Amino acid sequence: MKKIERVIERMMNDLLYYFVATDIDDLDPLLRTLHFFVQSVDQSRLSKRIVDKRVVRRVFTEQMPLHLPLFTDESFVAYQIINDFYYACLLEKIITRQEYTMIILLLRENREIFFQRMTNPDYWSERKIRTLDEWMLDDKEYDTKIDTMAFETSKIIEFPQKKGTAPPRARECSYQLRIDIQGCKPPVWRRLVLPEGSTFEQLHHLIQIMFSLENNPHYFFEIRNEIIKNPELSFRFDAAKKVQIDAYLQRGSQFKYVNSSTGNQFFKIVVEKVLDQVFAIPCCAKAKGLTADASDLDLKRIDREMHEYWKSD
């Protein structure tokens, strides 16, 4: 058995754990990350290049953010997968304890650069942006065969020093969101265009209208490890009525919405685009799949109800 096969076999339990315990819908982002990394470092031979600090740093901080197609939230799991890869190499005696410690420290020292670039579309290659756009808009299957030899290393650009904030925008905008009920087959989702300056409470009401949900006060959003809840139920969490969406939304970012009227079923929300156009009122641009309480997919009715809510709010 080849060294890479032994390592992956040893990692399988960890990969399955991520699949169960995180927001990742399948194992593909994890395998894609692992494949890209080992191919870029030494063509999956697991030679001494995997502990070459210069090579590892270049792949980790330059090539992965530039070329590896991952959505924003998947980058946090990708970082841990690389750490797990080196631990598996240690257990398989491919690297020494000293080499393992050296690389883990290297990854830790460079993780802020990694996260900044993995979550900033300004650094991504055109090919990466085009691929992510296709996946979000066309529901295409992921293509895990990535030709790392075709990539070109470009000049590294500087990033804002303040971590966790959206890049400044020169003009007003709107957001195109795709909202999926997780675990539904066939898929049930809605595409929402949301004006800039909207609050999470307003987004909650719009989701209820689009999916024909009962008006239930027990809901929350989970985004960037923060919980944003109904203002009447927010004791130690941020109140949804006060929190605007703009500081949180960038193209490619993902977050959760949970409403107890659906039995605490999770909704996955993806920011598909940040639009230059300014929309004064929200609209449901597209819908697919019926919920249990919906009798039809009448977009005109959905938009009419959303407009009535928006005017009364």
Automatic annotation (TrEMBL):
<dbReference type="InterPro" id="IPR024047">
    <property type="entry name" value="MM3350-like_sf"/>
</dbReference>
<dbReference type="Pfam" id="PF07929">
    <property type="entry name" value="PRiA4_ORF3"/>
</dbReference>
<dbReference type="InterPro" id="IPR012912">
    <property type="entry name" value="Plasmid_pRiA4b_Orf3-like"/>
</dbReference>
<protein>
    <recommendedName>
        <fullName>Plasmid pRiA4b Orf3-like domain-containing protein</fullName>
    </recommendedName>
</protein>
<feature type="domain" description="Plasmid pRiA4b Orf3-like">
    <location>
        <begin position="175"/>
        <end position="289"/>
    </location>
</feature>
